[in-house]
Amino acid sequence: MVAESDARTSLLGRRRLMELGTAVAGGGTIAAMNVATAAMAADELPISPPEDLMREHGVLKRALLVYREVIARIERGDDVPRHELGGAASVIRSLIHDHHEHVEERYLFSVLLRANRMTSTVEVLRSQHEAGRMLTSVLLTVDNTRGAFDRRARQELVETMAAFIRMYEPHEAREDTEVFPAFRAIMPPQTFADLSERLREEEYRRFGPMGFSRYVRRIADIEKSLGINELAQFTPTVPVARQAAGGPA
Ligand SMILES: [Fe+2]
Ligand SMILES: [Fe+2]
Description:
globular, 77% helix, binds fe (ii) ion
């Protein structure tokens, strides 16, 4: 049953969406609209379960980028950036292990298993969730470690992060390209829509109204602290790009 406050919220959302549509139809631009109204309307647009999970995969990818940078620093002999590493592991634990993977197992994997679809893949994905939690529990101790890390401890951190990256890259890619589409294909449209609403409520209950955005901000702050937040820094320079394309340098 939809609570009265939820019904009011939905009604408010529909009204804002109508305002948005009227503004665009009237020749106005998004930029010219009230920014707060536009942002709230966007926030209230329904998000399908796969879209919701895939944007969380985006945060996971950014955390993997942090791990890569930490590995590079350790391997070149720098101090372990413990706060950044501990922060990224903390984001992974609460957003990915405690929420995202719980949702996958409870609402998606169970449906696929009942339909006898992708059963062996789902079993592997579930065991990888378990392995991921174990690796993260090692990385979470970093922030509380006193004193310098000796050679063995640094090597263990590198191996733990490398194992995590190696497992989660194919894990999330397989979910995005095969598991989520298979789930979508067998879900009746109304059940799919109901699940969207249920996931939205669960996310709200767990994280509050700004839950997802808060995690994006946290991972962005960690990137900033490590100096890997500028997107343009990942663009190859022109000669390198030409060489890669087989042209003159
Ligand atoms: Fe997963
Ligand atoms: Fe996932």
